[in-house]
Design brief:
heterodimer; A: 233 residues; alpha+beta; 6-stranded mixed β-sheet; 10 helices; B: 152 residues; mainly alpha; two-stranded antiparallel ribbon; 2 strands
């Protein structure tokens, strides 16, 4: 074997080994099943415990600031926002009656997004949408793998106190849920929302401006809210 | 093709790759949307499970790869040529895997990722060619004769 062939074979061999290791790490990393195991012992709904909910809205209906989040339940960035930023905003601004927050669900990513949105809207009809979304993000699976099945949704919704899961499953195809998703679609077009999570802020649904398209830190979003509070109050 | 031409080609491909990977790293950490002409394709790919490898953004790994190749191109010698070729071959292999995932698992195409995959393919060819061009095809039997000639 010539030296040239030896070098080429060695290079290709080493490169193939490194790529194979990377592929294995990519394939076996962050199994969504791990989240599901944690979900059994962690009560993520405690974040919103005791805060009033009315349909899509979390917080005091008389709060001067409205924060609207456009989210796709399948979107990992939305999950990141829900875990890293949202709890601080809830404690600092929503629980204190300064801000009310509205969750607008879209289905940018695929059919699993649609199924999740319908179920979460159904939970909203019982004023438990935010509990249900926190549960969903906690066990969020791999995108578009068809994981949002009826058993999966029953598992997610079953962890929400006071929620009639059977009614939610039936309400998914109701006119109310369809109308709500239609209203979200109109609002999305009006404000030019093309990605998730997108956050808008204002005083009501007709007077909003985009804060960000992407995940903001609690500090960054807090600054935007403080600025709006300064203008409103 | 001369070594100079191969090195220049590799250099241009690497700079373009640094541009793409640098942009994707920036939008990842800034939390903003990439400019994308394919409806939601980039968003879908960038937010998929395959956008990270063991917690490190794939775009950052790509940037590290391109910078490594650039560094190796700036240094003379067989070891540097070998580092450039090996890094480019690894980049090519992983890019091929990610393109497969885009087409058959994520079901979306990110134009930036495709651009980077094409650049890595070019770099793997050019850098490997450049390395092998400097290596004799077989242990040279002509060498003693050449020495003899020189010594004559």
């Amino acid at each position: 074997m010539s030296r040239r062939s030896t070098i080429l074979a060695a290079l290709v061999g080493v490169a193939a080994a490194v790529v194979l290791a990377a592929v294995l790490a990519s394939t076996h990393g962050s199994d969504p099943q791990d989240h599901r195991k944690v979900a059994h012992v962690r009560d993520v709904t405690s974040i919103v415990s005791g805060i009033p909910q009315h349909g899509l809205v979390l917080g005091d209906p008389k709060a001067p600031i409205l924060l609207v989040e456009f989210a796709d339940a399948q979107c990992p960035f939305c999950r990141q926002f829900a875990i890293q930023t949202w709890p601080t905003i809830v404690q600092k601004y929503i629980r204190t009656g300064k801000v009310r927050m509205e969750l607008r669900l879209v289905d940018f990513l695929g059919p699993d997004s649609t199924r999740a949105a319908r179920a979460l809207e159904g939970a909203g009809l019982q004023n438990r949408m935010w509990d249900a979304s926190a549960r969903f993000y906690d066990v969020q699976g791999r995108e578009n793998t068809g994981y949002v099945t009826d058993p999966f949704l029953r598992q997610v919704l079953g962890g929400v106190r006071g929620l009639d899961v059977g009614r939610v499953m039936a309400d998914r195809s109701s006119a109310q849920v369809r109308d709500q998703l239609g209203a979200t679609k109109s609002m999305r077009s009006r404000y030019g929302v093309t990605s998730t999570p997108t956050l808008l802020i204002g005083s009501d649904d007709t007077d909003l401006r985009v804060v960000s398209a992407g995940v903001l830190s609690p500090q960054q979003l807090g600054q935007a809210i403080d600025g709006q509070l300064g203008r409103t109050i | 093709m001369s070594d100079r031409a191969l090195r220049t080609t590799a250099f241009v491909l690497t700079i373009l790759g640094i541009g793409i990977a640098g942009y994707l790293v920036y939008i990842h950490y800034a939390g903003i949307e990439p400019v994308c002409n394919i409806a939601h394709g980039c968003h879908k790919v960038q937010t998929s499970k395959y956008a990270d490898l063991a917690g490190v953004p794939v775009a950052l790994l790509g940037l590290i790869g391109y910078v490594t190749i650039l560094g190796a191109l700036l240094v003379r010698g067989e070891a540097a040529r070998m580092v450039a070729a090996l890094t480019a071959l690894i980049g090519f292999g992983f890019s091929a895997y990610l393109t497969y995932r885009e087409l058959f698992t994520i079901d979306a195409i990110c134009q930036w990722c495709v651009g980077s995959a094409i650049l890595m393919t070019g770099l793997a060819i050019v850098c490997t060619w450049r390395l092998l061009a400097h290596v004799p095809a077989a242990p040279s039997a002509a060498a003693p004769a050449a020495l003899t000639t020189d010594g004559a």
